[in-house]
Amino acid sequence: MVSLTRYSKNPIIVPNDNHDWEKGGVFNCAATIYNEQVLLLYRAIGNYDTYISTFGLALSKDGYNFEQFADPIMVPEAEYEKFGIEDPRITFLDDKYYITYTAVKTLIPAGDVEFHIGVASTLDFKKFERHGTIINEYRDKDGVLFPEKINGRYVLMHRAPEPDMWIAYSKDLKNWTDHTKFFAPIENSWQDFKVGAGAPPIKTDEGWLEFYHGVDKNLHYSLGAMLLDLDEPSKIISRIEDPIMIPEEDYEIHGDVPNVCFTCGVVEKENKYFVYYGGADKVIGVATIDKSKLMQAL
Ligand code: BMA
Predict the structure, then answer these.
(1) Does domain 9-297 have CATH number 2.115.10.20?
(2) What is this structure's pTM?
(3) 252 CB less than 6 Å from ligand 1?
(4) Which of 51, 257, 264 to mutate to test ligand 1, by most ligand atoms within 8 A of the CB atom?
């Protein structure tokens, strides 16, 4: 069985009591290489009464030891994200860093929540330009952009309607067409309830490598890996049958939401994939795998 190896000093980022905005939880994070460092853009919770998320930033030379910024670098500003910005993914595309995230629009006390995929871009992680929300299904999340156009079109994975993974195509990043469901939960497995995109796909000679999450009927979130066709990304070329990580460690089992490993970002470094993930909606961990070992299993 192929699985990720957790860093022995996990978790690598934990809530900070000295900062109101991130004292509750720091978890699901986007990851990219910026100025030769690993940059994480992470979801932070300060106040449990409102449970509104913002984004914090952390930088590291070695991919394990991170320096965090004292203030959040992106906070809800637009009407469509009034109740929080969550689960960011970073895709370097057209010479910019695009950030796709869950923009929470309404939070009805009875529990109904409306959210869409928000898009923003930045050159320097200081100034962010908002590009509104896309697709606009009533409840859409796990929006992940591919890092290049395919046959002249931008490509996005997302998850509406639940519980499946969908792909859509666009010429301008605004109008999305050719909506295709390409992966659904598998009965009696670790992913029999919901599946969703994780990190932006990584281009390999064999196909687009996608690290994603699968949820079972006990609401345990595990990680999986699949390869998508380079020219027709709605075709799955291969998939590792078993999860490559399941919640097992104390910081993945116990937190604000129990039994969660949730990735939004993977970077390539020293012939390995560094998978950054949220543990139990509370902390951030990293786990690695040799590129060749993973590719052999796919
Ligand atoms: C998903 C997302 C994640 C979260 C997970 C487990 O739907 O909202 O942000 O980590 O649920 O609570």
Answers:
(1) yes
(2) 0.97
(3) no
(4) 257
